[in-house]
């Protein structure tokens, strides 16, 4: 009997020691220790970074170029070949993409956990690459409209899927820099997209095809190749990382996420849960914030070359001048991503970037000299790019559970799609190349977004304050607070 009691005591001591090791958190904030030492932890996180971020960043960069190269093709001869200068044809071609994009956001994120991240994202990427190749062979604006609709359906789930997957792998204050790095690749590649598009237009006449068609054909072929390759690289959710991580490493990743926010394991995504999550008013504030971020982004993507042409630059010069502002955007995006993670703050930094973007658009529209107007493009594009990963990190930091994360990332990106629709209808062809309606609509929505961010941050501050004073729980978890 004494031996049994002694053995039970030893087992209890062992269990307590294991529990202590699981709950131990280092004073230097390197994170919890779960059976592997600090150096091993850093190697695991670095492996995740290198395996996950580059391939998703490259795949999304290509998808973003695919959807925004329309403006480059427009000034390279597509307008004349497809008769897009008649009525509102170009506006329709731009807008139908976003209608499809919005409708299929949530359905795509529902499919992703069931199909697997690698399978679904690679399928979407290869599909919209194939559609892009088809766009290079269109002979009428109606066919181009159908292709753009299909492109919207396939691209709908790509960015929310990437965002969903990334936020499932990292702690809350690691997400900002990771999303900024992910987005940074699209910023850098966009800097060269115009130059690459110009190079492709030099194929004009090859095999009897005009230069603008080669933009779609070559970029579509590259998209298919990269996304098929991505199928072999993308890793799934932490609980399914058996082939990538050892059992100890996998448990470490799961435990550190649970320690940070308590939602490493996936919960089933049902219609009942979707409807429940959609009742959260904060999701619509973030969706509006992302709409206010993508609106100027799409405006610059689709109409920047046209605005530059209106300043007196040739089509070739406009394409080349579109690239340099993205270099500033890359630096500002990474710095602000690091800053928001370092100081655990999101809303105010996003608001500053949105304000500078709005000012940049006003300078672009109303500057008296071409130099001043081009500086406005630098200001607008340079400070705009952080807003999108910033808003995505803002909402990811303030939600819990896989199911809500899937719904929140999709609804947030629905707002992003609405920004594209507003850009396509407010930047009227009849007002080219100055677009006063589009400029002022963008400015007004940007200011409204800043106000909503302030309201949300005040709400978060009050809830956090009350929880700290009373010892209450937020989102069902002790010592978990909203990120301002």
Automatic annotation (TrEMBL):
Pfam families: MFS_1. Residues 52-465 form the Major facilitator superfamily (MFS) profile domain. It is a multi-pass membrane protein. Keywords: Membrane, Transmembrane, Transmembrane helix, Transport. It is found in: Membrane. It comes from the Eukaryota. SUPFAM superfamilies: MFS general substrate transporter. Its main location: membrane. InterPro entries: MFS, MFS_dom, MFS_trans_sf. The chain crosses the membrane at residues 52-75, 87-104, 116-137, 149-170, 182-200, 212-234, 283-303, 323-340, 347-366, 372-394, 406-427, 439-460. This is Major facilitator superfamily domain-containing protein. It comes from Aspergillus cavernicola.
